[in-house]
Specification:
The protein is an alpha/beta fold. The chain is built from eleven helices and ten strands. Helix 1 crosses helix 6 and helix 3 runs parallel beside helix 4.
Length: 275
């Protein structure tokens, strides 16, 4: 059953300028549902580290898409997510859809804290996005023709941010998804050498995967001004725990997930990887 929303109520999309949040907001607006972007540059502003911003952002909101930066497994995340969920429910925003990490045991505490708030919750678990290669960490490496990671022969069922957004919108707008946890993946397992081959095919130039040591990767993170905890997170989620397909996309949407090759062709055609 799809929920009939009060037209005066909004959906707060935290991280509404990010990879999944932007797509969630776009899809809700297409459906005619009012949206408020939850970000430090939003109006009103939302900042995870400034609880005083939460109340104004939740005004006239009845549901929230919850994403947390940099990651739910980072120290302090569970306390902030739990406190926000309680504030949301108290403000009348009972429907909370949380984007969590597939295979991240540390993220489960954040999930539990959100559930304990009394919300009508849905948890959506995903790991590596296709869009990490054009909207995030690996855009410049792809342009430079070299993806350097300490992941050896790890394989990952990369999932498209558009599929995540479609699942999240279904969870926000359909009562059948309340109290459910969905794990999402793409349709096949890929090693990073195979990813590089797909990117090479799509762009028409050589893009290589280069294995590096953990120390070399941490040094690169420091040089880019990124938290070294990402090295630990990558090691955790690429240790084989996610090296199998799951079927949340089909379960929720009734269609197969998007393949990495289709994503790569579309992005290559946009010119974002051109040098």
């Amino acid at each position: 059953m799809t929920t009939n929303t009060n037209e005066t109520k909004k959906t707060l999309v935290i991280g509404g300028n990010g990879k999944t949040g932007r797509r969630v907001a776009e899809r809700l607006l297409v459906q005619g549902r009012p949206v408020r972007i939850g970000s430090r540059t939003g109006e009103p502003a939302f900042d995870w580290h400034r609880p005083g911003t939460w109340g104004p952002a939740l005004r006239d909101v009845d549901r929230v898409y919850v994403t947390y930066q940099p990651d739910l497994s980072f120290p302090g995340a569970a306390d902030q997510v739990g406190a926000f969920a309680e504030a949301a429910v108290a403000a009348g925003a009972r429907r909370l859809v949380l984007l969590s990490g597939r295979g991240e045991e540390a993220a489960r505490t954040s999930e539990d804290r959100l559930k304990d708030s009394g919300a009508d919750w849905t948890v959506v678990r995903a790991s590596w996005f296709h869009q990490n290669f054009d909207e995030d960490f690996f855009l410049e490496p792809v342009r430079a023709g070299e993806i350097a990671l300490p992941v050896a022969d790890a394989v990952e069922p990369f999932v498209d941010a558009g599929d995540i957004a479609d699942v999240a919108v279904a969870a926000l707008t359909d009562d059948r998804h309340i109290g459910r946890t969905y794990e999402l993946s793409g349709p096949r397992l890929l090693g990073f050498g195979e990813v590089a081959a797909e990117l090479s095919k799509a762009t028409g130039r050589e893009i290589a995967y280069v294995p590096v040591s953990d120390g070399e990767f941490r040094a690169a993170l420091r040089e880019e001004g990124l938290p070294e905890e990402f090295a630990e997170l990558f090691a955790l989620i690429l240790d084989g725990r996610n090296a199998h397909l799951v079927h949340g996309v089909e379960e929720v949407l009734g269609r197969p997930p998007r393949d990495f090759a289709d994503y790569a062709r579309e992005v290559a055609a946009s010119g974002v990887w051109d040098v």
